[in-house]
Structure formats: C-alpha cells, structure tokens
Specification:
Blueprint: H1 2-19, E1 20-21, E2 27-31, E3 35-40, E4 43-48, E5 52-53, E6 55-56, E7 65-69, E8 75-80, E9 87-92, E10 99-100, E11 108-113, E12 119-124, E13 135-140, E14 147-148, E15 156-159, E16 165-169, E17 190-193, E18 199-201, E19 209-215, E20 218-223, E21 232-236, E22 243-245, E23 254-259, E24 263-268, E25 271-276, E26 281-285, E27 287-290, E28 307-312, E29 318-323, E30 326-331, E31 338-339
Parallel strand pairs: 5-27
Antiparallel strand pairs: 1-27, 2-3, 3-4, 4-6, 7-8, 8-9, 9-10, 11-12, 12-13, 13-14, 15-16, 16-17, 17-18, 19-20, 20-21, 21-22, 23-24, 24-25, 25-26, 28-29, 29-30, 30-31
Length: 345
C-alpha cells in the first residue's frame, strides 16, 4: 500500500513538472504595485510581483507585445495585430474584451501611459511614409484623434511622474544582434520638457544608452559604457546631473528594463529580476507557466504557396524546392515527394 501511494505521489509530481513550461523566454516585462506583465509565446501573461504561477491574459493566434500598466495598475496597454495591422489596444488586468485605441494603416507601437492615466503614448511612422524612423503620438485611452508630439524622432520613452518631462531615445540600438557597438547608430537619452518644448541630450557619449525608465525623482536606463561594455542599469539625477551605475553584470547583457511606482523590473540571462528602489537591491523572480502547448502539436501543412527557392536536377526529371525551412525533392511529373532535411533548422 505504501509503495502504491509513493508511486501515485511521484506520478503527480511528474505530471505537474511536465505541464509547467520553462519561462526563460519571457520578454518585455512591466511592473505595477502588485503585478508583473510580460510576453511569452506571443501572448500576455500576468503574475504576482513575488512570482508564482502566471496567468495567461491573451489567447490569440497573433502576437501581442510591449505591454504597459496604467498608472493605477488596473489596465494594460499593448500592441497587437488583431485586424492585420499593428495597433494599440488596452485590456483590464482581470481580462475581458480588448479596447481598440488606434486604427490606422501604419503600424503603431505602444510606448507608455501618460501619468494622468487618461492617454497613451505610442510610436508610429504614420506621418513619415516608408522611412525607418518613428515619431511619438499621444492618444486618449479610449481612442480618437492622435496628437503628434513636437519631437523629430522617437522609439522608446518614459514620462516623469508629474508628466512635465519625457525621456526618450531615437534609435533602439540596445536590441541589435551585435554587441559592444561604437558608431553612428548608438543611441543617447534625450529629455523633452513638455512645457518649454526644449530638448536636452543627457548622456551624449559613444556608448549605447537605451530603454529610459522614469521612477520617482530619477531616470533609469541601460548602458554599456563601463569597462566590460555590458548593458547594465544606470541612473541619472536630473537635479545634480549625476550618473551612477547600479548593476555590474559581466556574463550577460540586460535585455529588458521597465519601471513601476517603486521598483524596476529587468531580464538578464533568461531570469527576471526586480529592483527595490529604496536600496537598489535586486532579487530574481521565480515564474512558472502552465500551458497546453497546443500550437506545438504536429500538423499537416500545404506548402505549395510558400516556395522560396528551387533548382532542377540534371535532366530535369526532379526538382529541389525550399519551403518553410525545409528542402523537398519532388518529381517534375509523377513520383514520390521526399523531405530531405526534416528538421527545425
């Protein structure tokens, strides 16, 4: 009887372990006073600030990205392509039907909530045509006409708590596939005064400075300006102009940074961390994800309309076709079709 009970207990633990998915690929996290939202598998997930089992907030075949909590933590603004085009949406932290905020032919990317909680900042090319740069627009959180900010270019940004200043970058260099870059594409942190309309470059160096995140009376950002040239967290004091390094990771770059009312959240080496802004101490957040992984089930797919390259064999009786990352050996008329590679490469 004891042996049977032990077997059943082990079996339960096995099922639980198999149902939980490693969350090492969590991206674009944001933090509120009580919760963390992040992107995993193209969907939005919610978890308590202390960690635990995450709840899947969105379930769509498309991809959601750039989630941001409203100032009161009750809603999340994000980017999705539900209608075939990237637009800004918002959803309650308790779930429900998403609200459409923007609806325009150019892609709109969520950037930040305004501190008043009544409008959302987003980046778009809608007034620049087919250029690679974007500009900032402010729109009511229920949708409507979007007002362009008097800033030439902008990608990511963060408001000061009183909304009087906006820290931003014009290029997202920190996400480039190459590391320790020094050149004309490096980004700096600019501060736009919403009252005087003046702009100040507060980092102005050849290093990469990105992902500005304002919390309290300080501006936090990522930079690889130290001797190891790794992306770490730095802070800027607008009053004294002092810049201070807060983390000193050497093995991996920090790939994501966002600020909440009293804490930072960042991702490094596949692990999520929160930093308490009262003492700048950071701790890892253990997050479990439970999913049926139904999208990963094997299925038959018609690839006849996704052929990208081909070559004919000598004599022209057979062809090699490339489609969806595989090479197929097919007959010109009659015969069997062979998948030559049959791999996920």
């Amino acid at each position: 009887m004891k042996s049977l009970l032990l077997f059943l207990v082990c079996l339960c633990f096995t099922f639980q372990a198999q149902s939980q998915v490693s969350a090492k690929l969590m991206r674009q996290a944001d933090i509120s006073a009580t919760q963390i939202v992040f992107v995993y598998g193209g969907d939005l997930w919610l978890v308590d600030r202390a960690g635990g089992t995450a709840i899947q907030l969105t379930h769509s075949p498309g991809e959601e990205s750039y989630p941001r909590f409203s100032p009161d933590g009750t809603e999340i603004a994000y980017t999705a392509s539900y209608n075939g085009n990237l637009d800004v949406f918002k959803i309650s932290v308790t779930g429900g039907l998403p609200t459409v905020i923007t609806n325009q032919s150019w892609g709109d990317r969520t950037v930040e909530w305004h501190p008043d909680g009544q409008s959302i900042l987003f980046a778009s090319r809608r007034e620049m045509g087919p250029r690679s740069s974007r500009q900032f627009f402010l729109v009511d959180d229920e949708g409507g006409h979007a007002e362009r900010l008097p800033i030439p270019y902008g990608e990511l940004a963060s408001y000061s708590p009183d909304g009087s200043k906006l820290a931003y970058i014009t290029k997202i260099t920190e996400n480039y596939p190459f590391k320790r870059y020094r050149g004309g594409l490096t980004s700096d942190i600019y501060i736009f005064d919403t009252i005087t309309k003046k702009i100040e470059n507060v980092t102005d160096n050849i290093a990469i400075d990105g992902q500005p995140s304002w919390a309290g009376d300080r501006l936090y950002f990522l930079s690889d300006r130290d001797e190891n040239m790794r992306l770490n967290i730095w802070s800027y004091d607008p009053t004294t102009k002092a810049i201070e390094q807060l983390t000193k990771f050497t093995d991996f770059d920090i790939s994501n940074l966002s600020a909440g009312p009293d804490a930072l959240i960042f991702e490094m080496g596949g692990t999520m961390y929160t930093m308490d802004l009262t003492d700048n101490n950071y701790t890892p957040v253990n997050i479990s994800i439970i999913s049926d992984l139904s999208v990963e089930m094997p299925k038959a797919k018609n690839v006849s309309r996704s052929i990208s390259n081909m070559t004919a064999a000598p004599g022209g009786k057979r062809l090699i076709l490339e489609s969806r990352g595989e090479l197929f050996d097919v007959p010109a008329k009659d015969g069997v079709t062979l998948n030559l590679t049959n791999s996920s490469g």
